[in-house]
Amino acid sequence: MSMNNQGRPSQAAMVQDNELPTISGDRGLDLEARLIFELGREGVTGVDLPDINVDDSRLHGLRRKGAIGLLGLSEPEVIRHYVRLSRQNYAIDAGLYPLGSCTMKHNPRLNEKMARLPGFGDLHPLAPSSVTQGALALIGDLMRWLTTLTGMPAVAMSPKAGAHGELCGLLAIRAAVQARGEHRDRILVPESAHGTNPATAAFAGFVVDEVPAKPDGRVDAAALKAKLGPDVAAIMLTNPNTCGLFEGEIIGIAKAVHEAGAYFYCDGANFNAIAGRVRPGDLGIDAMHINLHKTFSTPHGGGGPGAGPVVLSERLKAYAPLPLLVADGEGLRLVEDRARVPDGAKPFGRMCAFHGQMGMFVRALSYMVSHGRDGIRQASEDAVLSANYILASLKDVMSAPFGDGPCMHEALFDDTFLEGSGITTLDFAKAMIDEGYHPMTMYFPLVVHGAMLIEPTESESKESLDRFITVLRGLAEDAKAGRRERFEGAPRYAPRRRLDETAAARKPILRWKPSALPEAAE
Amino acid sequence: MRYLPLTPNDRRAMLAKIGAPDIDSLFKDVPKEAAVSLSSFDLSDTKGELEVERILSKLAARNVAAGAAPFFCGAGAYKHHVPSAVDHLIQRSEFLTSYTPYQPEISQGTLQVLFEFQTQVALLTGMEVANASLYDGSTATAEAVLMAQRLTRRSKAILSGGLHPHYAETVETVAGLAGQVTRSPVTPGRVEDIVGLIDAETACVVLQSPDVFGLIRDIKPIAEAAHARGALLIAVVTEVVSLGLLESPGAQGADVVACEGQSIGNGLNFGGPYVGLFAAKEKFLRQMPGRLCGETVDATGRRGFVLTLSTREQHIRREKATSNICTNSGLCALAFSIHLSLLGEVGLTRLARINHAKAVSLADRLARVKGVELVTPYFFNEFTLKLSKPAGDVVDALAAQHVLGGVPASRLMPHVSGARDLLIVAATETNTDEDFAKFEQVLSEVLA
């Protein structure tokens, strides 16, 4: 047993798996957080504001009668609460977060600083255009980067996330179909697609028709072409696809789609694999959303906000939603009125109030200008290289259904290597948590059994990748050797053990409830 | 490139392990005609942090921030003071650089925040349940209309003329696809006859209060009329601070509440990102859009939180989902929740009273200016003035004098006759007496 410089044993060899329960419920640096409603007290606030009276004469008799029920805390208590909560989260800044399809890459802090410049962060969306020229110019610059990188003539900036961008693209397609006086209500969606694709198609009023995948993980182009017909409005294809593979037949597919009078929507969730090397416009795509929170690294924030601008082809650009950014003699301005759009523009409507996720635009442009075209291309190459390195380093111990050829930016495994072990993809993922990693995306795409989709991104060093590979090889070997103790009951070293999701859904508890609401404050 | 850790040696070693001769070979599935060289992109090359900061700062400096001038713009986005603690906390790595809590054991921070957020939203709106956020108030309103169409199996949505026109256009864009969307007349400062439009085909009535002109609307009689015909009442709130002083929509009979949450915790950001609050009666739970966080226990019996009822959602339900939303407004919801936790009951009610008092004081002051008439008799922190000159021109003239004097109604509703001379003015706790004096003085000059 090794000794430290105070002569005490430095190994925890004597400590069993489950330590003594503590009196506090906390365990060293593992600090529990009660609900903010269990901490709050009446009459306390963390914001000093004067206590003034107002009369009711302008309130139309609608002054609040009862208390809201919020209670209150001082600032130090609030800060401690949220700091404790934050420490129960895994994060990219803390470790490798290989969540396939989500692109958990590094979030440069410069971008945060830029978005908080008062000229952007403290700018009102309806301030007169004379005082927002810099913001409009920034949007214009970002539009130029996006259209240049994609080789597309136009971009609609207002969609607020990827799924919102899909909706924008499909509504443009719907408008274009209607403008031709046609009725096309079917959308072809490969079975490997993100769930948002069929959901969006239905949301936009289309009927979804699934296209099967081939054994090599690509869409069955022959089956797809066979389904084309006068009632097909569009196909929605992800490229690179959700198996992490480039759809090599894409140009032919686009040609067939166009010949059938339909449009080609591309889910751009995986644009980060090809940015700077391939222009979607060269592939025959009519519309594609770009997840600024994926490819261009705006922070994921625990589930948003994102941004999903949609690039549009010549055939669709007239239908871009309001508002439109135009330049005229007096500078830049937003056209917000359908009656005053430039010649040829036929906006299908409006996606949201105001003009999109400006805070994300600033961060994305900061990322793009920092990287430059060379850095963006290098980032794509490094993302693809890292995923292939993982695939090559793990495919002998795990099972890679499409392991022969190169993958793009993510490496897909299935659960064949776990066969007979009694260990599932879920168990394997939870064991990764104990090893200090966020699990990969599990059980997606649906086209392979027990899918494990690993996206390392370009942000990892080779040392980090090597360590990750060593850990996954170890886990795979333990699983195959039937050493189930590492998997059953995992995670052991997380803030919580496995959570009972069935119970949560059976009897939903979706909010804290007071035993009794306090009386009105005044 | 400072963000890319791989060295040329690393790349060579990795290619060797893969057995690939070069990086191009990894892109071999890309059709030859689609592979382009770097020079095909007419864009700049890598820049250092200092240069990037210089470029973006120059753009930012061409804008006039709300805090840099006497400022009175609202109409769906409001300037409030956000305590410093909020921005510090939301920039903690564990909140900023995590994603949707798919692995609950290592996402309890985000999940508990969502559970607390849902509780706060339900309490504020006076509703039974709330979801974990939507993109913003306008998209939340559109989702509410779609939900009402599903629940009632009726197609018609009636929008109040006082609904923010951007919201109305957003609703029309999606809810008009399969259904029918009717807007009632715009009657600035007055209540329109909306009850007369409700019929047996009506799925919902959408009523904003305070409305786009700032007018406080009585939800209850319209909710009762809607209910009598089997329709739902969707209440919309664009200034959520108002709920610190006004009766909640739930207490007035709303079935669904869609709010813009920007005012609490979130900056103006030129229009986004914001945070949509969505709350409803519990009986509508299974038709609600978006993520829901629920309480449960872990394998050792300790309380914990998970995303739940996901059989409503696109990743499980695909084309049968209640919405296509995936990424929502997590970090903005966190900012909302932290700010509201700091305010608490006492702070929010005080903040709301201060806002109202400021607006009353400003409205009365401006109403004394020659050529100005107050249109809205009842209001929270925003009111509408009828001016003796076109409001758009007045706003430009005010801006030239370094006063951001509100939003001309004509910008939001260019085709509404009578909107041309209307100016929508907001006052919040951030305004000082000096701001008011300057506004009054410059407005008098402009209208003279």
Quick take:
Chain A is α/β, with parallel strands linked by helices and 522 residues long. Chain A is built from 13 helices and twelve strands. In chain A, strand 4, helix 9 (250-259) and strand 5 (263-267) form a beta-alpha-beta unit.
Q: Describe it for me?
A:
The complex is a heterodimer of chains A (522) and B (448). Chain A has 522 residues and is an alpha/beta fold. Chain A has helices at residues 36-39, 75-86, 109-115, 118-121, 133-150, 162-179, 196-203, 221-227, 250-259, 358-394, 425-434, 462-480, 501-506, and strands at 154-156, 186-190, 207-211, 232-238, 263-267, 287-289, 310-312, 324-328, 331-335, 411-413, 441-442, 452-454. A 7-stranded mixed beta sheet of chain A has the order 1-7-6-5-4-2-3, with helices on both faces. In chain A, strands 10-12-11 form a 3-stranded antiparallel beta sheet. In chain A, strands 8-9 form a two-stranded antiparallel ribbon. In chain A, strand 2, helix 7 (196-203) and strand 3 form a beta-alpha-beta unit. The longest helix of chain A has 37 residues, at 358-394. Chain A is globular, with a radius of gyration of 27 Å. Chain B is an alpha/beta fold and 448 residues long. Chain B folds into 2 domains: 68-82 and 345-447, Aspartate Aminotransferase, domain 1; 84-339, Aspartate Aminotransferase, domain 2, CATH 3.40.640. Chain B has helices at 8-18, 49-61, 84-90, 93-96, 108-125, 137-152, 165-175, 219-228, 314-317, 330-367, 391-400, 409-412, 433-447, and strands spanning 129-130, 156-159, 180-183, 202-208, 232-237, 256-260, 276-280, 293-297, 303-307, 372-374, 382-387, 407-408, 422-426. In chain B, helix 3 (84-90) packs antiparallel against helix 10 and helix 6 (137-152) crosses helix 7. The radius of gyration of chain B is 25 Å and the shape is globular. In chain B, strands 1-7-6-5-4-2-3 form a 7-stranded mixed beta sheet, sandwiched between helices. In chain B, strands 10-11-13-12 form a 4-stranded antiparallel beta sheet. The model of chain B has no long low-confidence stretch (mean pLDDT 97). The N and C termini of chain B lie far apart (59 Å). The longest helix of chain B is centred in the last third of the chain and has 38 residues, at 330-367. The interface between A and B is large, with 212 and 209 residues.
